[in-house]
Amino acid sequence: MPILGLSPSQKPVYPAHFDVEKVIRPNILALQPYRCARDDYSEGILLDANENSLGHSIEGQVEGVQDALELNLHRYPDPSHPLIKQRIATLRGLRPESSSSDATSDAETGADHVFLGVGSDEVIDLLMRVSVTPGGSEKILITPPTYGMYSVCAQVNDVGVVRVPLELRGDNGEGGEKGRFSVRVDEIKKAVVADPSIKLIFLCSPGNPTGTLIPLSTIRSLLEFPDFRGIVVVDEAYIDFVDDPLTQSAASLVKQYANVCVLQTLSKSFGLAAIRLGIALAQPPLIQILTNTKAPYNISTPTAALALSALSPASLSTMQAKCQTMKSYRSQLLASFAELGKANLGIGRSIGGNDANFVMIPILDSKTGEPSSARANKVYKALAEEHGVVVRYRGNEPGCAGCLRVTVGTEEENKAVLEKLVEVLRIIS
Ligand SMILES: Cc1ncc(COP(=O)(O)O)c(C=O)c1O
C-alpha cells in the first residue's frame, strides 16, 4: 500500500533488509489523515475554519513577547511550516547538494526529511504510536541508564520494554576510558534476534544521564544488522554540546539509511524549552507517516515564529557561540569538581562522557569511599531545601550509584553550586 502523501520518486532503499511498511502498524498505513482547513487554501477571505473573525482579544502588550499581537493569532497555524524545516535541513546537512538557492519544494530543500513535534517528547510518543502495536505483544528496546520518557511513553501506549543496560567501560577490564558508558551492541543484537517483536531501538546520544556521545560506527552496526527490521531512534537532544556536531550527529546517516530516525530539539542548545519544538530527521517515507498521524496544527504560530527567528543565520551564530561558552564552563566545572575530589569531602571522579550540558558527580560514603546513593540523596535534598540549589538525584539509575546530575549553569550559578556543595558535604556524612 503506498504511503499517503508520499511522492513516488523514491531512491532505492538502503539497507535492503528494511521495509518501512513492515514496521508501521497497518491501521496507520491505512490512515486517511485529517485534512486541515488550510491544506487546500490559505489565503483570501478565510471563512473555512470557524475561527474568530474579529481577531484575538488580548489587550496591551503580551509580557515579554514583542509583536505577538501581529501573529494572526485568530488563525490556525500553518500545518506544515516548510520554512522552519528548510532551515533545519540546511543546518543538519540534509539539503540536497544539487539544491539551488531558489529551490522551494520540500524535496528540493530537504524539508521532506524533517518533522516537527511539540518537543521531542511528542515525537517519541508518535514514533511508538505509528510502529508498535499496543497490548504488550510488541516492544521497544532501551539502554538504561537513559532518558525516562521512553519507558513512560511505552507504558502509556501499553508497549513492552526490553532493557539492555549500557556498560560502564573500564569496570570490566575491557579497556577504554574509565567511566564512559557504552552501548552493548552484541547484547542488543542478541536481544532483537531473541525477540523479533522489538520494533524500535532507542539510543540517546549524548546520553541523558550519561552525557556520552555514541560513536557513529555503533549506530551503523545496528542499522546494518539484517536481523533487526525496525527503526533505530537516536535521540540527540544534546548534540550541539559536542565538538563538531555536523560530523558526529547521526543526521549524517539519514540520507543513506532508511531505518534511522534522529530526534533533536530546540529545548537545549537553542535555549527554547518553553516553546516546545522537537524535531525528527529521517527519510521521507517515515517523515510522511509521522506527518499523516500528527494532530493537524501541532506547532503553534508563536512557537513557529520564535523557531524561525532562532534558525536565522544570526541566531544560529549566537546559539553556536553560547554552546562554546557552555563547553568552556563545563570544563571549568569538571576541573573544580576534580579539585574538590582531592579535598576529602567525598566527591568522586565524574562519570560519563561529559559531552552534554551537564555533568554526573558521584557522592561518596565518607567511611568506605564508595559511591553512596543514601548520602547523595541527603545532599540533593539539603542543597534544594536549605540552599536553594536544585540538581538532579540520579543514584537510582543503573551504573549511577551516588550520582548527582548537575546542569552547567552560568559562571555565578556554577560558583554557587560548588560553594553550597562544600557546605553541605561538611555537614552530611
Ligand atoms: C534525551 C532527551 N530527549 C528528549 C528530551 C525532551 O526534549 P523536548 O523538550 O524537546 O521534549 C529531553 C529533556 O530533558 C532529553 O533529555
From TrEMBL:
Requisite cofactors: pyridoxal 5'-phosphate
All residue ranges annotated as the Aminotransferase class I/classII large domain in the record: 44-421
Pfam family, one: Aminotran_1_2
The entry's keywords: Amino-acid biosynthesis, Aminotransferase, Histidine biosynthesis, Pyridoxal phosphate, Transferase
GO biological process, one term: L-histidine biosynthetic process
Entry-linked SUPFAM superfamilies: PLP-dependent transferases
PANTHER family: HISTIDINOL-PHOSPHATE AMINOTRANSFERASE, HISTIDINOL-PHOSPHATE AMINOTRANSFERASE-RELATED
Annotated family: Belongs to the class-II pyridoxal-phosphate-dependent aminotransferase family.
Superkingdom of this protein's organism: Eukaryota
CDD domains: AAT_like
Bilayer-crossing regions: none
Signal peptide location: none
InterPro entries: Aminotrans_II_pyridoxalP_BS, Aminotransferase_I/II_large, HisP_aminotrans, PyrdxlP-dep_Trfase, PyrdxlP-dep_Trfase_major, PyrdxlP-dep_Trfase_small
Name this polypeptide is given: histidinol-phosphate transaminase
EC number, UniProt record: 2.6.1.9
Reactions it catalyzes: L-histidinol phosphate + 2-oxoglutarate = 3-(imidazol-4-yl)-2-oxopropyl phosphate + L-glutamate
Pathway: Amino-acid biosynthesis; L-histidine biosynthesis; L-histidine from 5-phospho-alpha-D-ribose 1-diphosphate: step 7/9
GO molecular function: histidinol-phosphate transaminase activity; pyridoxal phosphate binding
